[in-house]
Amino acid sequence: MLLAINCNNTNIKFGVVDGDRIVGEWRQHTSAMRTADEHAVWLMELMRMEGIDAKSVTDAIIGSVVPQANFNLRRLCTRYFDIEPLFIGEPNVIHGIKIKGVGAGADRICNTVGASLMFPRTPVVVVDFGTATNFDVVDEEGSYCGGAIAPGPNLSIEALVAAAALLPRIVVEKPEKVIGTTTVACMHTGVFWGYVGLIEGIVTRIRAEFGKPMKVVSTGGLAPVFDGYISVIDQVAPDITARGLIEIWKRSKKAA
């Protein structure tokens, strides 16, 4: 079985994959200070609770946008699973897509590969709700064409709280009314509907510039919160990044 690790700025997602089926999946808050031993205690206990034998894991792949966490993630694989993991971005990893331009991180590469698998021969915009909100543009050939990066909703809330003494920390949720009558209600409106407008505005401009019909899918931790309220999003694809990560492992093993 395959251990697939997707390390982002907010969370690390660990998945155990049997063939094409994800048999276990868990999230952990990202911390570069967390040691390989701490990762192992947490992960192996969760695997045990799900009835997954750690000895059945024979391969590992890691997609990371947090370089400071990579040493301990690699150590987790080598010490506790006796596996040398593949890292997206290293020369021996084959993602099999064209990257038009520069600056595609592991998460955007995985989203591109996942989009080309889920929607073959179809241009796609992947809206990834993470620490940042990424817009990944994939053409009909499955190539990464670039996109946009905006601050994520929670990052915007943290900026508000840090800069405005009387504003409290809130969670992202749909407000009952657009016109807020309390400070908290006003913040909910500004964050929620502000991001609805941001997503719709950027996607509309991407589509106009691309010049062809495009599928628009959302993913990431906050994607379900906005599901049904952003007119330009066709569907939520929660596993698009994981699908891409697994496919990259398959392509790399085949080429080895």
How is this structure best described in words?
The protein has 256 residues and is α/β, with parallel strands linked by helices. It folds into two domains: 2-87, ATPase, nucleotide binding domain (Nucleotidyltransferase, domain 5); 106-244, ATPase, nucleotide binding domain (Nucleotidyltransferase, domain 5, 2-Layer Sandwich). It is built from seven helices and ten strands. The protein has helices at 36-49, 70-80, 106-118, 153-163, 183-210, 223-226, 240-255, and strands at 2-7, 11-18, 21-29, 59-64, 86-87, 124-129, 132-138, 144-151, 215-220, 235-236. The protein has a five-stranded mixed sheet with strand order 3-2-1-4-5, sandwiched between helices. The model has no long low-confidence stretch (mean pLDDT 95).
Name the features.
256 residues; alpha/beta; Nucleotidyltransferase, domain 5; 2 domains; five-stranded mixed β-sheet; 7 helices; 10 strands
The CATH homologous superfamily of the largest domain is named ATPase, nucleotide binding domain
Instruction: Indicate the overall shape.
Output: globular
Structural class by secondary-structure content: alpha/beta
CATH class of the largest domain: Alpha Beta
- In the CATH scheme, what's the topology name of the largest domain? Nucleotidyltransferase, domain 5
Portion of residues in beta strands equals 15-25%
Counting DSSP E segments of at least 2 residues, the number of strands comes to 10
- The average pLDDT score comes to 95
End-to-end Cα distance: 18 Å
Low-confidence stretches: none
Oligomer: single chain
In N-to-C order, the SSE pattern is: EEEHEHEHEEEHHEHEH
Query: What is the total number of structural domains?
Result: 2
Helix fraction by DSSP (H/I, runs of at least 4): 25-40%
Q: Specify Rg, calculated over alpha carbons.
A: 19 Å
Count of helix runs: 7
Strand order of the largest sheet: 3-2-1-4-5
CATH architect. name of the largest domain? 2-Layer Sandwich
